[in-house]
Amino acid sequence: MSDPNAANHPRDREGAAATVRVLHGTSYAFEHRGERWVMCAAGPEIESITGYPPADFIDHARRSYGSIVHPEDYSGMVSLFQDAIERRAPYAIEYRVIHADGSTRWVQGHGRGVCDAGGNVTRIDGCFFDVTERRLSEERLAHLALHDPLTDLPNRALFQEHLTVAIANAHRSGSGGAVLFIDLDDFKLVNDSFGHAVGDELLVLVAQRLRDSCRAGDVVARQGGDEFLVLVQGTSAAADPEAAAQTVATNLRVALAKPYALASTDLYITPSIGASLFPSDGDSAETLLKHADIAMYAAKDAGRDGYRLYQPPKRDSSVELAIASQLRQAERRDELELYYQPIVDLSQSCIVGAEALLRWNHPEAGLLLPGEFLPAAERTGLIRPMTAWVLERACIEARRWCDHDLDLYASINLPPAYWQPAAIRRVIATIESFGLSADRVMIELTEEAAMTDIADLEPMLAEIHAQGLRLAIDDFGTGHSSLGRLSRLRPSMIKIDRSFVKDLPGDRDAGVLVETMITMASKLGIHCLAEGIETEAQLKFLRDLGCPLGQGYLYSRPLPTARFNALITGEERRAA
User: Fold this and answer.
1) Is 292 in contact with 309 (CB distance < 8 Å)?
2) What does each C-alpha distance from 497 to 299, 343, 370, 503 come to in angstroms?
């Protein structure tokens, strides 16, 4: 392998230009002549990268090197080149070149200026490498992360990204839109009767008909399995989103009702379609999807092959007020309790942490799960003092684990209402008050909460990162986190939602998505945790993919504090 210093300074001891061989790349040198920079040296490998021999570029014999740089990248490359010269600093850049055969290649360049006796940069020495394969792999990975591998439609994550933008546009312009949730009736019979290969062919044809039947500007996506999504957007303030949704749904039903020539016969399939409207039925992507899903099941209950619009349930305000009133007394009566679900290192099968989960020991209804009382807590503002209570109790346990030399951390979910600067400062102060080091606490943010304006979150995230606290993105895959958003959130961990794990390893599409998430997280230096592991087959599949962490009933259900502590203080401290 060549000396990297020599690669950066391709000159011999007499100072004459030299061509130093660089592994998978080539060295080069430019000299400043008059008003321009001219290539004065290049390694022979430049021909394999550009298709042109070095002699073509030396002294601009036949062409300048800049003439083969992609037009869209040229100005950026020149700007960075000039900036490096002015600052007397090394530079690194990736850009495209046009190969002699007309193809496009990605190259990664490194170099630095060399000064004369007067301190003026008169030469640039450097090297560049062909990174086309790596860039194409990254692009394929990014595409796969946001598209369904079978139909190449956007997946749920990308659909939610489009939907979030559409909601924001609707707020600004006073317009509206709709979400259609489509489920194919009796699709399982096709798989059972003709096999999964025919079922896959049918899904591809359905996807094409959905694309062809929607309006320009609408977004079609595959939710998973035999479920599809359509974003009906761009309805003007004067238009009726309900009417637009009805029109699109009718067109889809007509298109899907035509026979499919598969397996030497004509197959027929019908859809059940549910719709939710924005902004009337919700102001977040997750809420609109949930409501469209509810409407779709209403269409199925009505006999299938139909369309239903979401109808909000009639809320019994007296029941909600009663729950809120009882919640106010729950802490004082010692009715709230934390359960802990082990977080397991999958390769070692040992417990490394625990997620703190709130329960309410209701005096009449018994043990209540969060879904039965947290909505009322959020609507009445009780969620903030309840979260503070959870944080303090979890810190008490984390402190106890430390005192018993147990290398565990507590993971605590902070609801969206708690993501305010003053509340985050209280979180940090509470953790510090128990003398806990940063690695003993993990703060969880749901992916839905991460959909808020990242600019609003960044100051709080900066404070969290500055304190060394770790951040996890919960329910990952159900929201719309893009690679760019993940890089700005800088989480320590993503938690793959149980909806992707439950059908492993049999569901090929779910397997591809999980593998993509694990690979993406690994490349970004983020730990990955799979939620909802219930079978040995799921565990083996995730281990084979290199997923480092997991939770689920296969290891342990959430346990009361005393039982969890009994588990972790066992001699082996192995997952139950």
Assistant:
1) no
2) 27, 14, 17, 12
Q: Any idea which architecture 140-309 has in CATH?
A: 2-Layer Sandwich (3.30)
Cα 488 to Cα 153, 438, 465, 503, distances in angstroms? 26, 20, 12, 31
The answer to whether residues 538 and 501 touch, using CB atoms and an 8 Å cutoff, is yes
DSSP 352: E
Q: At 192, list the tokens.
A: 């059972």
Architecture per CATH, 335-358+381-568: Alpha-Beta Barrel (3.20)
Asked whether the CA dihedral 196, 202, 208, 213 is positive or negative, the reply is negative
The answer to whether 412 touches 397, Cβ cutoff 8 Å, is no
pLDDT digits (tens, 9 = 90+) for 328-355: 888 788 889 999 999 999 999 999 999 9
Go through 415-438 and write b for each residue having 16 or more CB atoms within 10 A of its CB, e for each that does not.
Answer: bbebbeeebbebbbebbeebebeb
Say if CB 8 and CB 112 are below 8 A apart: yes
Q: Which residue has 């003026």 as its token pair?
A: 120
41-50, 251-260, 443-452: which is most confident:
251-260
Name the residue among 21, 24, 61, 58 with its Cα closest to residue 43: 21
The domain segmentation of the chain, as residue ranges, is 4-130, 140-309, 335-358+381-568
Q: Domain 4-130 sits in which CATH superfamily?
A: PAS domain (3.30.450.20)
Question: What gap in Å lies between CA 386 and CA 376, rounded to an integer?
Answer: 12
In the block, residue with structure tokens 């950066």: 8
Contacts 24+ apart (CB under 8 A), 16-24: 17/41, 19/43, 19/44, 19/54, 20/127, 21/45, 22/127, 22/129, 24/129, 24/130
Strands 409-413 and 350-362 come out as: parallel
Which of 120-124, 168-172, 426-430, 568-572 is predicted most confidently?
A: 426-430
Please state the pTM of the whole predicted model.
0.50
Find out whether 338 and 557 touch, Cβ atoms under 8 Å: no
